[in-house]
Amino acid sequence: MEICEGQGWRLVVDPSRSPYTALIGGEGWACELTGAELLALQRASGQLTAQHVALADTLMAEEAIDIELELPIGDPRSDAGGSLWLGLRGDRGSWSLQLVLTPEPGSRGMEGGWTAAASAAFAAALERLRPTERNGEDQDC
């Protein structure tokens, strides 16, 4: 089990817990995620933060940016799975993340977000995780 946390964010990964192998949280909220949901969050966060890095130098100091991405969870060929939407909002120097988990039928959904101060640290912790599908080993964040 790996616990990563800082001011305004939390990430706990325990591959031995099934089906919810991760817990994420922000100011006043927390939600458990399946391995597939965590993997989608890792991918989305990585893609959005890479896009922000690529665009940041092209933004004027007072210019804001909104980038969003929605990824399917589960089998993308099936309409039965849910989806994860992640949005990044900010400017060239700082940004915040917002998350919406749309559940597959019979499961739970959630919405949450992190402040600008917490978002970069949370995204960095997600990036340091090894893929969640490996051997049930401890994660490294």
TrEMBL record:
InterPro entries referenced in this protein's UniProt entry, alphabetically: DUF1818, ssDNA-bd_transcriptional_reg
Domain of life: Bacteria
Protein name: DUF1818 family protein
